[in-house]
Amino acid sequence: MGLFGRTPEKPPKELITEWSSKIRKEMRMIDRQIRDIQREQEKVKRSIKDAAKKGQKDVCVVLAKEMIHSKRAITKLYASKAQMNSVLLGMKNQLSLLRVAGALEKSTEVMKAMQNLVKIPEIQATMRELSKEMMKAGIIEEMLEDTFESMEDGEDMEEEAEEEVDKILFEITAGALGKAPSKVTDALPEMEPAGATAASDDESEEDIEEMQSRLAALRS
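Structure (tokenized):
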């Protein structure tokens, strides 16, 4: 602690090292999240195959929509990693500038990347903190408050999802059953006798709800 109880500002090189370390930590967290979602996806695929064998069309559609949400979540997480790589590259450039000019400089590339990263719910808290520190250090300009708003999935799932659901069901059931439905409204092949499936209906619903909860938790 410095004079009058104020903490002295850290040297620019130390700031860059800290920022880079925090970003790498968030990237590792995103990698883990992607792996967790992918593991859940495999379980959902198996459940779709089981439901298809039992002729549970509605169950297949619900699970296929979960697959769509999960795929979109993974795509966003990979995009976040790419943005963080851009910031890390910007930090390396800042170190080079520091050696030559002795000071940090504004970076348009880092500014653009941070504007996108502060909107990602999974890493928002850390990115907000880093952006404020970078603003104070003069690397990026002050961000407007609406920049910090989270990105919402404003897309209307239904229309787009129907085609995607058909595709997912085709891919997953084709290998297992030999014949895949061309449309979700088609009857699924190889239905088991009603007596064989009735007892497991309640269990299936519980399993689906549990999977949906796990996937939602991983995406949030």
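The longest helix spans residues 57-101. The mean pLDDT is 77.
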